[in-house]
Amino acid sequence: MKLLEGKNALIFGVANDRSIAWGITEAFHQHGANIGLSYAGEVLTKRVVPLAESIGCTFVEMCDVTDDTQIAAVAEKAKAEFGEIDILVHAVAFANRDELKGHYYETSREGFHMAMDISVYSFTAMARAFQPILRPGASLMTMTYYGAVKAVPHYNVMGVAKAALEATVRYMANDFGPQHIRVNAISAGAIRTLAAAGVSGFKTMHSHYAEIAPLRENVTKDDVGQAAVFLASEMSRMTTGEVLYVDAGYNIVGVPETVE
Ligand code: NAD
Fold it and tell me: According to CATH, what is the number of the domain 8-245?
């Protein structure tokens, strides 16, 4: 059964075939959505364009989400291409590597601003720019992580940013609810991607993940893609303002069982 037939989906954040945004794109494609992609900048063109071609997607737009003019330009082009948008995916985050090691209290003012601007405000900026072309029943979603609610070593400013992002989800869900537009987040378990590689100690943390998570498996971008289909489809029509954990249950563990 295809759950997204006839729906127009715009996905921000594909960097390569390991990106969570790509897992979501593939799942949406399998479920029949019409897809548009947006990516950060020139250096990614040679990776993103062939990926888009592999699913027959012709709407591929560059956009630095720190620039409102660029976001507005993508919204304008999306209007011309699709008319209205049913699904908007924000899978974008950035912090300088220097901020993702050592202690949180050592975060620089500049590093804090940059992480918040790219990883949090951009979701609000996207919602504002796309609001005029969102169809009633539309679904907006972003990607968060457990470091929003618990202190995770080295995740630092990104954890603070994710906490702000989760609050953004609740405020926007309240704003957009009367237009029958839903806003949710997926809190994904650790997945080896470009962004994750920037977090000091990520590899070690990732290698122990499946020993601790109740389902005893690592999460994949495809698992996140399936959950995104649920949030994008009518199956979740009464769910908004939520953080959906797709983490093999990792977040519910208080004390991990001793690994033998
Ligand atoms: P990724 O590196 O593939 O994706 C991050 C994306 O952000 C890239 O496409 C990058 O180009 C984009 N980006 C950065 N700065 C940008 C800018 N100024 N303008 C436009 N785009 C910009 O890594 P990912 O792990 O797939 O990350 C996607 C989302 O998932 C992020 O929000 C990340 O925090 C979140 N997440 C990741 C994990 C994990 O373990 N990988 C877990 C939970 C949540």
Answer: 3.40.50.720
Backbone angles phi, psi at 12, to 5 degrees: -105, 130
Q: To test the ligand 1 pocket, which listed residue (10, 60, 92, 146) has its Cβ within 8 A of the most ligand atoms?
A: 92
* Active-site option among 39, 155, 245, 250: 155
Task: Please write the tens of the pLDDT for every residue from 12-21.
Answer: 999 999 999 9
With 90 as the cut, is the pLDDT of residue 228 above it?
yes
Delimit the domains of the chain by residue range: 8-245
Say whether 145 is catalytic: yes
194 CB near ligand 1 (under 6 Å): yes
Ligand 1 atom with the shortest distance to the CA of 188: 43
CB 118 near ligand 1, within 6 Å:
yes
Q: Mean per-residue pLDDT for 225-254?
A: 98
Q: Tell me: the pLDDT tens digits for 113-153?
A: 999 999 999 999 999 999 999 999 999 999 999 999 999 99
Closest protein CA for atom 28 of ligand 1: 91
Between the CA of 257 and the centroid of ligand 1 the distance, in Å, is 31
Both structure tokens of 256: 């991990």
* pTM of the complete model beyond 0.90: yes
Q: What value, to the nearest 5°, has the Cα angle with vertex 37 and ends 32 and 40?
A: 160
Instruction: Look up residue 199 and give its DSSP letter.
Output: S
Helices marked H in the chain — which ranges? 20-30, 45-54, 68-82, 109-116, 122-130, 156-176, 194-197, 202-212, 221-232
Closest-CA residue to 51 (of 221, 244, 198): 221
Catalytic residue status for 146: no
